[in-house]
Specification:
This protein is of the alpha+beta class. It is built from 3 helices and 13 strands; from the N terminus they run E-H-E-H-E-E-E-E-E-E-H-E-E-E-E-E. The strands form 2 sheets. Strands 1, 2, 3, 4, 5, 12 and 13 form a 7-stranded mixed beta sheet that branches. Strands 6-7-8-9-11-10 form a 6-stranded mixed beta sheet, covered by helices on one side.
Length: 235
């Protein structure tokens, strides 16, 4: 399998840390890094369409995948979809999204009711299969986050090809990644990525099957309340 470059960023509902639109900042980083796959979390789009995401994909030559984790709206109709998205250049052979918070609840605008998922695409990379995923886990509830992490590892362990998941995990890797080598971590010692203005929390990183080689770094790049991460993976 040739090297594959993956960019991950929590894009804060298309807003920077001051609340201004950040689509141009995201586009600038795509142009500067030329990733093969882009993992975006906190993607917020109008229900029934994904104009911002589709615009970026078309501009840079990606296919886009966005099954919203949450639908939000009012009593009469849904208004928008929110969750994880992937932009992909390699051929996509399969797509799946797993619920990581169980049982699902009706979303009422609170974090405690917000569904959590991992979005995965099975790619053909130089004739080799690779699952690449994107996830975003609860911040306030340690119990809900721990349960979601256990589900993530159990489900990933059953995949039929090497896997890699980028995420805003909202907890340090040292709190949950096994130390027995069964899960690869990149960077091996995650560095702070949040908040972007004064990074203090190492919560954005990559976990992967140990059959992969993954190098990753946090980029000093403005445009969201998180710093982005750029990874390179190979068998």
């Amino acid at each position: 399998m040739p090297d594959i470059r993956i960019l991950h960023w929590n894009i804060h509902s298309w807003r920077d840390d001051a609340g201004a639109p950040n689509v141009d900042a995201v586009a600038s980083l795509l142009a500067a890094t030329s990733p093969d796959v882009v993992s975006l979390v906190e993607v917020d789009e109008t229900w029934g369409g994904a104009a911002v995401l589709a615009g970026l994909a078309g501009r840079f030559g990606y296919a886009w995948v966005f099954p919203p984790t949450v639908h939000h709206g009012d009593a009469d109709a849904p208004r928008g979809g929110y969750g994880n998205a992937l932009l992909v250049k390699a051929p996509i052979r399969a797509v799946q999204q797993w619920q990581l918070r169980w049982p699902p609840r009706l979303y009422d605008g609170s974090e405690s009711s917000e569904a959590r998922t991992v979005l995965l695409v099975r790619l053909d990379v130089g004739g080799a299969a690779l699952w690449v995923g994107s996830t975003h886990l609860p911040r306030r509830s340690a119990a809900a986050r721990s349960a979601a992490l256990r589900r993530l590892l159990t489900l990933a362990g059953g995949l039929d090809a090497p896997w890699l998941v980028c995420g805003d995990f909202n907890t340090a890797a040292s709190t949950w990644v096994p130390a027995d080598g069964s899960v690869l971590l990149a960077p091996p010692s995650p560095v702070p990525s949040y908040p972007a203005s004064a990074p203090a929390e190492p919560i954005d990183y990559v976990v992967a099957a140990p059959s992969l080689t993954v190098e990753a770094e946090i980029l000093d790049r403005a445009g969201s309340d998180h710093l982005p991460l750029l990874a390179t993976a190979s068998l």
